[in-house]
Amino acid sequence: MGIEFLAIHSFPFMMLIGSAHPPNEQGEKCRPAAFWGLFCLYFIMAAKMGGLLAVLTFAGLTVSTYLGYLLRRTSPGAIGQLSMRWAMSFLIFMITASATRMSEEVGEWPDHERVLYFGMSYFLVLGLLELSGFYHSRPVLALIEKYRSQGKNS
């Protein structure tokens, strides 16, 4: 679950940099270095959590958590949906950890008796959210469009 927490937070930062359109040539030259630098940093962090298996787990969890975004990343409002997915993943992670009475010390989680219930509940809620079409519902799309249009006006 520590690796999932890393996946929740790392992917949006990498995608924001990866999909950015810098206003000048120098920014465009720096963008790949920033993206690959973060990519390496997060994979090193995952490796420190448990070696090659942790890196593979990190890659799998990142793809499974953000698959909906990856399949639609070229659509209008994709960054808004990425932000919404990040917020919901983080919120569900915290609510589920509280509901399953997980320890506040994440280092204790591997030995925690309720970590299985936490993981099962967390991924079930994420899956149901994805199946429900929440990220493509009218209220969410309207919210994304509202913030997108505000960004264009500033």
Describe the overall structure.
It is built from 5 helices and no strands. It is mostly helical and 154 residues long. Helix 3 (78-99) packs antiparallel against helix 4 (115-132). It has one domain (2-153).
Question: What's the layout of helices and strands?
Answer:
Layout: H1 2-18, H2 25-71, H3 78-99, H4 115-132, H5 138-153
Keywords:
mainly alpha, 0% strand, flat, 154 residues
What is the helix fraction of residues, given as a range? over 70%
Strand fraction equals under 5%
What is the mean pLDDT? 82
N-to-C series of helices and strands:
HHHHH
Helix count equals 5
Large-scale geometry: flat
Kindly provide the radius of gyration, computed on alpha-carbon positions and rounded to a whole number of angstroms. 17 Å
Describe the largest sheet.
none
Cα distance spanning the termini:
39 Å
Number of strands: 0
Low-confidence stretches: none
Number of separate domains: 1
Structural class: mainly alpha
Kindly summarize this structure in a few lines:
By secondary structure, the protein is an all-alpha fold.
